[in-house]
Amino acid sequence: VFRGRTQPLSQEALSRAGLRGWSPGRAEPLAGHLHFPQCFQDTVVAWIPCAFLWVVFPFYYLYLKHHKKGYIRMSHLFKAKMVMIGTHASFLSCLQMLAVFLTQLERQKGVQSSGVLLIYWLLSFLSSIVTVNLKIQHGFLEDPFHHIASYTYSTLVLVELVISFFTDQPPFFSKIVSDSNPCPEASASFVSRITYWWFSGLLWKGYQQPLEAEDLWSLMKENSSEEIVSQLEREWKMYCGRSFCHSAVGRARETQVLLEPEDCQSKSLLKVLWSMFGTYFLFGTLSLVICDVFLFSVPKVFSLFLEFMKDQESPNWKGYFYAGLMFFLACLQTLFEQWYMYTCLVIGVRLKTAVTGLVYRKILVMSNAARKATTVGEIVNLVSVDVQKLMDLIIYFNGIWLAPIRIIICFVFLWQLLGPSALTAVAVFFLLLPLNFAITKKRSQFQEEQMQHKDDRAKLTNAIFSDIKVIKLYAWEKAFMEKVLGIRKQELQALKRSQLLFAVSLSSFYSSTFLIALVMFAVYTLVDETHVLDAQKAFVSLTLINILNTAHSFLPFSINALVQAKVSLNRLAAFLSLEELDSDNMNTNLLDSSLIAVTSGATVLCFGRINLSVLEGNLLAVVGQVGAGKSSLLATLLGELQKLEGHVSVKGTVAYVPQQAWIQNASVEDNILFGKEMDDSWYNRVIHACALHPDLETFPAGSRSEIGEKGINISGGQKQRVGLARAVYQKAAIYLLDDPLSAVDAQVGQHIFEQVIGPNGLLKEKTRILVTHTISILPYVDNIVVLVDGEISEMGCYQELLQKNGVFGLARQAIQGEAEGLGPLQPTEEKVNTSIYLDYLKAMGSPVCLYIILLFTCQQTASFCRGYWLSKWADDPVNNGTQKHTELRVGVFGVLGVIQAIGKFGSTAAVLLGGTIASRKLFRQLLENIARSPMMFFEQTSIGNLLNRFSKEMDAIDSVIPDKLKSLLGFLFNLLEIYIVIVLATPIAVVAIVPLTVLYAAFQNFYVATSCQLRRLEAASRSPIYSHISETFQGSGVIRAYKAQQRFISQNDFRVDENQRMCFPGVVADRWLAANLEFLGNSIVLFAALFAVINKKQLTPGIAAFSISYALQVTQNSSVWFCHLTGVSGCQSFMFIMDNAPGIQILQHLQAWPTEGRIEFRNYSLQYRPNLELALKNITITIRGQEKIGIAGRTGAGKSTLAVGLLRLVEAAEGEISIDGINIAHIGLHDLRTKITIIPQDPILFSGSLRMNLDPLNTYCDADIWTALELTQLKNFVLNLPDQLNYECSEQGENLSIGQKQLLCLARALLRKTKILVLDEATASVDVEMDLHIQSMIRTQFKECTVLTIAHRVNTILDCNRILVLENGQIAEFDTPEKLMAQKGLFYRLVEESGLV
User: Fold this and answer.
1) Could you report the per-residue pLDDT of 301-336, keeping only the tens digit for each?
2) In 113, 718, 1090, 1233, which residue has its Cα 20 to 30 A from 1351's Cα atom?
3) Hey, CA dihedral for 306, 307, 310, 316, is it positive or negative?
């Protein structure tokens, strides 16, 4: 096609150009200039823009018709476009009318920048340039009119093109206009959108100053939970055939639900996800296909360039043209590839939103059987790790079908270059393919094993952080750490094996490039001596082999991603298919005046047949022994248990107070209002009635004081009263109260009954069902139900039941409780320091780092030598049609390739295994620091934040960072090699390489500064999601009782949207960096080619090919690694928190300490935080060894605080505590706490066997454990369990009653039997008969121990040797019970209020 003036186009030349039959034109151009045939210019060149516009027009018209964004008024920009089009409309009037129509239509549809018209004007301008070029060659005087017309037309088109780069004003009636902080993508120009330069504003801002959440844009509606989750929910309902809120079909048996894969469930979920995201994904796939077209175009142009370099007579314009064309095609490839990645990542963000929303909604409708089958840790893994696997599949999925097509095309091109010798490449490829598939399959097995260990670890760490106070009280930190580290060790073993296989897979992939080239070149040159391996054949083949191996490596990755995603999809589908609550368990239709009716009801595992009816306004008390089914009766009325037969009806709104108070991580006020509007008058009445005024006065911010997760910074009594106040504030018709008086003292209990529950309380006109052990209030209730083994034994009023002298007649005791307060929480800050980037490498160790650098240097040196050797081989002179020393060339080429392969495997394995070492060290350090942190840290840090560190961030440290580090080092060493090659080939290239390197460093600097902050914000916004999920999982029964599901769903959606608002800029930042670095890489190719053309006379084809082929290998494998190091930063932020005192501080002469159990408080004072008042003030007392001390006082007196100080959960502000003459401040925390046994107010069990819960340290034999169970009257209960001591307790011990859990905590104390025992209301949750037995057992079994009993039930301490009465943190009275009663002081009044005088 391209000829000079002195060589007219022949038919043979036209045939080769694919233009047979075209006329060469009337005139001949100037020598050495680009020239197209006249006929070709008049038709093909002129009509390419027209064809583009006519082909695109129907699709674009349909798109505009269905995507209206508003209406743009006639702006100056629009008028300028119309004027310019009208000015040159006479040239191609029909086509210009179509452009006018599209311009007007875009304005009416709110399109601010048109990509279609910009491409059209660009094509038109390029077409006009060809015409202008021809006119210049022919001279102006030959045809002045057509010259002027061509110049004018080109100028007008250029102006129109320039105008198209600008954006119009925002449209009217657009949501973007009303948004205070809209995403700039919507108003960016087409060029800015495809190059991601619209993101540069935020990038510059992040570089200049720290980014805050307010700096990020609003979430676009199409990415919001409101838009996505509602659609997914509808689709999922359609496929599953049941509602998310109610189960359509009742189940007649308890379903034992396990998280096992079920293909039918996962297929349904996959169909739902495809129906939502499939179309958008297909558009992304189309971009990838177009990208591949340009990918294979580059080697063809490279081949033409090498042909030009070989032909010394070719004009230089050809070289410049080929260089520019390679750059242009590579840039187009970059644009389409990055658009594909952007599309996939946006789909991933939406998928995460959809799945998280769906999982959260599922939590709110799960049945009790389903709740026992899963844990918070597993659910957190579903919405973090498993969702990430699905997001990965979106990117890799196309590799499954596209990689084989790429491989076939590569083989076809290789056949064209080397003929039948290319078949050897096919043979080598198919020999290596099974190896990669085998490795991928084995790796997937290891990864499944790793995921299982990860689940177990998440489950255990969640349990530890949830109940860290109990673990610290019992000094179990080391034991539980060892359990976590044991699981972690197994997890890392699986990871290590997986990483070694990955190193083998990668080295085989890189070796395959060399093996295919070696075998192919050897066969090609050795089989026939006349086969000459020139630069074109050698280096174009290498370029194709690189593409082949990229596809080859992408295939196992794709299959691996598919396998992992299938496992995650199965897990998600299985969770979403767990049993749901049946709407038939309870209905709201009643035919009589009763508000509650249960007719012949029977529920799974709880009840036999019962009949119960409660009239409106009645107060019904439910009593019975531990495990009789009292709480289960309330659960039945709430529809929480599966009904087997009968009828349960509840009419009116319900308020529920559970036995174990559920408190939100929010202010006291928010906990009480619970979504209702503030009514100051009613609020104050409720606060007074629930006896919360004294507590609020001690809180720093009063009602607005923040309560920690699970109420960690307030006492059990305060939690219960806040929960009760929440119920009272709701003004419901029915109140279900599950023993709310058990956690408060006698005075407060009496106050609450009189002011709230009793005949004259705020709820006197409401229907109330009260589960209680407080016999003293029973004369004031309307009716009493006595439950025995899940059946109603007796029912009637108080006097009737006394006269029957049945089970009820045995109980006449009272129950009290207690509370103390802490202060509000302060959020912790997380910052990214520059030193963090080195911390990960330090964790690897200096020897490993040096070894890695050495191996990368060796393998890159071998790579350089191999390429240089090949260039020399290609430049070997041809004598008589053959090349000499072919065998030597093949042999050395093979040896260098083997050395490079060994170096590649070593360097990759070293990085991945070094990553495992770093991961182990960082995890252990993180765990040890958190486990040894004071309780204040856990009060200030949310569980979601901690779980985020141990799940998402640790997963990045395990897998992502080593892979990114490997890519980074490979990229840097590869880039260094490429620079060396280009500079050696053309030294003048330094002029271009230096500024390109500066630009590269600048882009990295901008990117890292902003991206790390974005990832920090994203991680910070992720933690509240996990905390909210944990909170909702624990309190789902309360949420359903108050019918607050929709409000909590909205809260979750808001948190997810906030997280996605932080996540989306990070996605764009990655694309911005990748696109810009690829453009820089393409520029390196351009300059390498340009300088090769300039130095054509001095360069051999082999060296030129060596230089450019290496430049083509520059990819976007940049230091995205740095951003993922924010995971290390997040974990490192917990490495330097304030530690507790040393855990072990061995004093050799006190191995048997304490021997007596004598406790002395000397001027002891304590405050929870520096800014709070003293909780204990100047306590000075001496407790003799083996003495039994009762501790009494009103709410907030400081009773539990005394135990807190004794166990050093909070260090002394003043004074000291001595045990047997030793200051406990000089004893290691672990040593101290192992010598003291405490039974806390809240009974805590962990997910695991009963034996593990009783003896986590595994120090006692089974006989000792059975003895302890017998003493606590649990032996028969445990013997009747399926696996007895190996019976698995669910999370928080939810499959046992509160009373049973309290008795198990007593059994723990019996096993430890230390010299000092602290009972913090250990019998609050048991019935009166059991309470009497426990008190008797403590007197006998702990006869030789010093016992401190914190009393809420005053009757439990009347037989103590002495009683310590506290008031406002000071000692009010301290003497024997007899003397204190005689004094008629504060203790006397407490006894009197309990009705025991």
Assistant:
1) 988 888 888 887 888 888 888 898 889 999 999 999
2) 1233
3) negative
